[in-house]
Give the backbone structure.
Amino acid sequence: MTAAHLSLAEHAARLRRRELTAVALVDTCAQHHARTEHRLNAYKTWDGVRARSTAAAVDTLLDQGLDLGPLMGLPVSVKDLYGVPGLPVFAGSDEALPEAWQAAGPLVARLQRQLGIVVGKTHTVEFAFGGLGVNAHWGTPRNPWSPHEHRVPGGSSAGAGVSLAQGSALLALGTDTAGSVRVPASMTGQVGLKTTVGRWPVEGIVPLSSSLDTAGVLTRTVDDLAYAFAALDPEHAGQPAPPPARLQGLRIGVPTNHFWDDIDPSIGAVVDATIERLAQAGAQVVRLPLPHCEEAFDIFRRGGLAASELAAYLDLHFPHKVERLDPVVRDRVRWAEQVSSVEYLRRKAVLQRCGAGAARVFDDVDVLLTPTVPASPPRLADIGTVETYAPANMKAMRNTAISNLFGWCALTMPVGLDANRMPVGLQLMGPPHAEARLIGIALGIETLIGQGHALLGTPPDLP
């Protein structure tokens, strides 16, 4: 294993053994950023000078034997919805939000108390309202797996996955309302976790949907995810990282409906081959319909809850921004203004009923496996109008949105490349607050099939 592929745990151990300095680690990340950022455009704000200063302070404390937590000295990118003291918050819009939004919420505060090093703020779709990663104000980050044409990186945490592939960060904070962690993680060959609503606090994060927003993380491997989850999760505080689950006898549910509709054949083949390997390893694969998907997704297609909640938020706090929104966001916000309060409340009730009904599937299986994204990342040139963007955006989030609509937790992990040589993600879904169990199952799968860098190789758009 090369230094570039060392785990978060190994980096942390080397820092504490003083075989590695935090300054050297940040310098390496800064070099990767400088070499490729002009092409990849992962960051809205790069904070390299302050990151290096923080790293020097980390080294001084470690030299004195002081240890402030598992993330101490590790470089982290943060989605530009989070407040980070001293860094502007644009939320993907054309101007910075009021300075009050720079205050750290509980999750960033937890990171900074451990002296995790924020290297910068990564690009997001405007107000996080989109699954492809486009931004008309600041440019769309480039997917590093596509060297010859600009393919999207997934969104809305558009720069987060790119920052990990770029090597400018070892961990990325994102948010997920309908797939905004898992879609970019899948499209850029990373691992991404969507937490249960309410498990991680969302204070200090610019909202999209007060009902569905969740904080999440992107990492390079499931092993790194287990480490980061143990360090950041309030309910997991002081406990070791989740251990790998045994695959022998594991009950894997594979939904036969919704998730496989109109799928890219090469993506379906990669995911099917992975499921077959799990069966050969002793897992019990159960193919079954997952109820209520179509009913819930029909609500999502018509704006769900997020469109109405974003429209209300903008009307209350930033009415002057509505006319200046990215057109692919503005049209959906305007459409949501036509939704009545009765219809909004009906949607909430239907989704709660659907989630509770569908969760009964976990009486019979331990986890649900599906493709994360059913289509290859589109070329930016092919989604340049609202008319071409809308269907591609909806398809990108089709599989991920279900766990949000049902109130579940979910993660994605890389399992291969599609016919365009773009990463393919495997999605794992579990009931509410089953994150540790889900990570353990993903660790078992990763132990069997290998980590992303071994499966996929190196993104060809990186030197």
